[in-house]
Amino acid sequence: MRKDLIATRQAIEQGHIHAQAVAEECLALAQSDSCQHAFIQLTPECLNKSDSTQALQKRPMAGLAVSIKDLFDVQGQVTAAGSVVLQGQAPASVDSQAVARLRAAGAGLIGRTNMVEFAFSGVGVNPHHGTPAAWDALTNSAAGSTFEPRVPGGSSSGAAVSVATGAAFIGLGSDTGGSIRIPAALNGLVGFKNTARSVPTQGALPLSTTLDTVCAMTRSVRDTILAHEILSARKVPSAHRPLPHYRLAVVNNLMQDHMDPHVTRAFERSLVTLRAAGAQIEEIALPELTELGTMMSAGGFSPAESFAWHQHLLAAHADQYDPRVAQRIQLGAPMKAHQYIDLVNARSAWIRRVEKALLGYDAILSPTTPITAPKLADVAPGAERDAEFFRVNGLLLRNTSAINTLDGCAISLPCHQAGDLPVGLMAWHAAMHDDTVLQLALLLEPLLQAH
Predict the structure, then answer these.
(1) Helices 19-30 and 5-13 sit at what angle, rounded to 10 degrees?
(2) What CATH number corresponds to the domain at position 71?
(3) How confident is the model over 398-425, as pLDDT tens digits?
(4) Is 95 inside a domain boundary?
(5) pTM above 0.90?
(6) What is the DSSP string of 354-396?
(7) Number of domains the chain is built from
(8) How far apart are the first and last CA of the chain?
(9) Residue 156 domain-assigned?
(10) Which of 124, 208, 333, 356 could bond 305 through an S-S bridge, CB–CB 3.0 to 4.6 Å?
(11) Domain that holds residue 217
């Protein structure tokens, strides 16, 4: 893994490397085969902001490269959300609020990243712009006789590959059901889904106005904290609690079901490592998780709310949509107003019960996804692979989407051994526990990396 943002910034400030050289390397990587299909458009502003050491001292990200998911408005650019149906729209007149905050911190925007069309999948496949391969899986497989690309995870697929390859230090994305944490897990990155209300969504094309969260992927927890501080416009307080003073739990139902052997080994090894370091980890049952299927039986928030946004576009241009995305959006068409209101009320009551069950715990630990990155060939566009695609999509989204329903916060940390396919460990809790989850992640990260 390449240096993180903070280490790079320190090297520039100490004169070990010039900011211009860093910017040029990021752009070269963005244009290389390692980032094939990761970017939809390159806009190397980092080259124009990288030569001022004085600026580095004043602004936390001056000149350092950040990639922007194609979901966000950037002044003068078209926001197409990975589609072709919106490519003819007028360019954005102003930056989205998240982009504006990154710019104010001095970020150098390097380009718009590829994504699942309209952010509606956890797999990462895009039939219009191609699909980038999961980068860590690629490098780990390079020594083998045959390389088989694996899915990058979605919907923030290009954002993940841009950070994993070194083209960007921060990948701005969104998380409605796992779209930051899934690609983070499959590419060996850190991905943080903050409490949704803590970062404004203004200027981001919506999938579900109830669940959408603006957040980012990075190469380290300390970079994640910096990114969150910029996006939320607040400081994360330092904590001085040692690991044994945190009370942690592992949910023994649903989130550990149907794990593949790679994930099982990495997750169990991680728990052994953390317990050996003094972590208090209890196994708990959280039966409320099994209620989610029934709660969403009428369709769920994402189909209903996305159909409200897309219905006129679909009526006129359905043939220009990814058929798998169109199919999921159209699941929202039959939902009646009373069913939607019932869902809103059921979710509120469910959140209260889950929050009560989690009282006294600082965080819950789970696998981010129960499976490692599947082979891209098995889920590539094509009706003959739709059944496998939707099976994989459901598994990838299962654990992460529960946190969005909870209106909670969660971080995915790499927990696999070198040479294995990437696996993520997710630490999570209910709304507004962001600081505790981030502070805990700082303690977990070196322990997980050590093995």
Answers:
(1) 140
(2) 3.90.1300.10
(3) 999 999 999 999 999 999 999 899 999 9
(4) yes
(5) yes
(6) HHHHTTT-SEEEEES-SS-PPBHHHHSSSGGGHHHHHHHHHHH
(7) 1
(8) 15
(9) yes
(10) 208
(11) 5-232
